Each structure stands twice: as structure tokens, then as C-alpha cells.
């Protein structure tokens, strides 16, 4: 991505850890972001948290 000049490298980094959140019938409503761990661990933490939230009981 950096080689394509798609963003200002002084302000942004191409890194894992951010996951868009979409609601069916609505579209994009939020983005969950984690930073501070290695990139894959950042991403995996967000996915794990969102999966846990989605699967929780509403009782």
C-alpha cells in the first residue's frame, strides 16, 4: 500500500488491528481498533472480542 501512495505515510501506517463493523440493513456503523501488540495479535484480539460479543446470551 505504501508503494502505491494511497495515504500520507507521515500520518498513517498500514497495520493490522482495525476491523470495520457492519450492521445488516444499515451498513458500516463503527470501527474497532486495537494497537500495541504485534499486528496479527491486535487484529485477533478485536476479532475475538467481537465474536464473544456476538455470541453472548441476551437472556
3D architecture notes:
There is one protein chain. The protein is α+β, with helices and mostly antiparallel strands and 59 residues long. The protein is built from one helix and two strands. It has a domain at 15-55. Helix content is 29%, strand content 22%. A hairpin with a 3-residue loop joins strand 1 (18-23) and strand 2 (27-33).
Oligomeric assembly: single chain
Q: Number of helical segments?
A: 1
Q: Which spans of ≥5 residues are poorly predicted at pLDDT below 50?
A: none
The portion of residues forming beta strands comes to 15-25%
Please report the distance between the alpha carbons of the first and last residues: 44 Å
In which order are the strands of the major sheet placed? 1-2
Instruction: Return the average pLDDT rounded to an integer.
Output: 84
CA radius of gyration: 15 Å
**Main sheet specs:** 2 strands, antiparallel
How many strands in all? 2
Could you spell the SSE succession in H and E letters? EEH
Rough shape?
Answer: flat
Class inferred from helices and paired strands: alpha+beta
Helix content: 25-40%
Features:
single chain, 59 residues, alpha+beta, two-stranded antiparallel ribbon, 1 helix, 2 strands
Topology overview:
Elements: E1 18-23, E2 27-33, H1 39-55
Antiparallel strand pairs: 1-2
Please outline what is shown here.
This protein has 59 residues and is an alpha+beta fold.
